[in-house]
What does this fold into?
Amino acid sequence: MLDLALHLKVCGFLLLSLSALHLTFPRHFQWWREFAQLSLVNRQMFYIHCFFLCVTMSMMGSLCLWGTAALLERSALGLWLAAGLTIFWQLRFLIQHFVYDPTLWKGKLFESLVHVVFTLLWGYLSLVYAWLLWHQCR
It folds into this structure.
């Protein structure tokens, strides 16, 4: 039988890893070059939003790793958290396919691989949190 607690811990590890990966974005995507044309406020908003995305994913990951029992305990708060996490990651899954322009990866081997990997990741997170929501609703 599948173990929801184990999958929540896997999600926690994945989210903490993803948060750490975001720390490499400025250098990898050469933001200093790309953002040179932006106004100071737009440049700083981009860095700050990336920082808070890292914080949010770290908090989600930490909750899944070290607060697994609390997430599994049926409660009004658990239900709201499960619903919020499910909606958040399902929206991210949809954005991967309906907002990003396919020319970013089509015909490019590495970018296509990244697209597939992240599609699988967003799908996995969505499914585990939907499972948690179902567990909370029972």
Summary: The chain is about 80% helix and 0% strand. The two ends are 18 Å apart (CA to CA). The mean pLDDT is 95.
